[in-house]
Write a structure and sequence with these properties.
Strand content of chain A: 5-15%
Number of domains of chain B: 2
Distance between the termini of chain B: 32 Å
Mean pLDDT of chain B: 88
Largest sheet of chain A: 2 strands, antiparallel
Radius of gyration of chain B: 27 Å
Number of strands of chain A: 2
Oligomer: heterodimer
Helix content of chain B: 40-55%
Number of helices of chain A: 3
Structural class of chain A: mainly alpha
Order of helices and strands of chain A: EEHHH
Strand order of the largest sheet of chain B: 2-1-3-4
Shape of chain A: elongated
Low-confidence stretches of chain B: 365-373
Amino acid sequence: MTPENMPFTEWGLMNLSDGPDKILLEPYRFTCTALRFLFPFVSDVLRLLNFPRWIGARPALKEAADTTIAFAQSQNNIEFDVSYPQLLERLSLPWE
Amino acid sequence: MGVYMAINIRETIDTRGLIPVFGYPQLRAELPRVRVTLHTDNLAQAQGEDALARDWLVAMGKHVGIRETRPTFDLLVTPARSSQGTAWSSPHALATYDVEHIPISLQRFYGLSLNPNWEEMRDPNEPSAPLVDAKIHQALERHLFVTLDQSVLNLALNPRPEGNVFVLTPHEAQHYIDLCLKAHEKYHIRTNYTANRSVYYWQRLWNLVPAFQAAWPYTVYGAADSLPDSAPIMDFMQALYARLIGQMQACDRIGWLRYGIPTSDARDEMLNQLNYFFMLATGVFDSLAWLAYHRFGFRISSPQGVTLRAERRSGRENPLFRQLDTAAPDLASFFRDRQQQERIGLFYAPRDAIQHRLVLTGAHFNSGQAISL
């Protein structure tokens, strides 16, 4: 859904009137939105791949991995000051 | 399928077979001196994410890093005229405009505007205090004026004979400074905590893809214990994170170029990064498809069948999805979802054009840059 005052879609895409296959793409808007889609997508797929079940065939191995995961998660809970990827600023175009 | 490993060999490898880490010129990238002016009276009222960003700008503007002799950027604040502005700025003890350096043509209005009642007193033809501040900022050749005042933000959009003013909100300014620092090899996780590029993006990935934190050790342990298909699973996990990190780096580079003067050089580099971004994006889908293939021990006759794209030649079903229907129905449903397929398709159309037909080409807009396919 493209608001009237926002010619580009959330993905930074805009169809041109002079040809159905001509598309304008705003690179930064596209790449930021793409990453905002890709991160949860990848996370969901990795979760659904269910690696604990794969390694669960060897319980001792899974236990060792779980210990490592718990330790890694306790060490890697660093919060960044600046969020990522950023939402973009207002877009002003001549025809607005 | 081959696994290629790149190695950079200079002249010598030490007795342990390692590349020496000494004997390189110690060159350091020079961080440009960004001159930032905060609009005190206006920003004293900032709330939410803009207040957080304002405080981050102040902290960064005062922070002197290890082996540095001055703060990360040059920070000034406009003089406080309101009690709110005074209450906010006084504890920070930040420098304001030096009267001696203000051009004579602006000194009279500057003096008058310091009166807290200037807005009520002034003639409609005389400039408002925020406008006086912005004009002085510009006359002092400072780079970035930060405010939430819409009348000043609008200055950035109008071509002016004396040159444009670069004005951003605190949240946008934080983003700009962060991109600037990264473009010059300063990777701040927190104000006083930096990392090298590799650690910075790894940590970003670790935070942004929480399931990766768990999946990664399983694949490492699985590979160490030679679980079935563990070697290719490990390879595709490595490919997955390398591609995601490459995408983050490309996105940051494109973001930084976006704020630069739109020259043909900037356009060329942005297009290179964008072309690369598309290839990495579809590579991420390929990595996930192959992870699913090896995780569940599938056998598919053609490698072209190992894809997350549902669309096949008419009458053909995606063989990966068909096998997933039995082995992991939740994952099969997730991939088949129409909205997911629309988004996956959004990457493949330009990727196919780049790889097989045309590269992306560039176009300029007055208000930024746009790329046409």
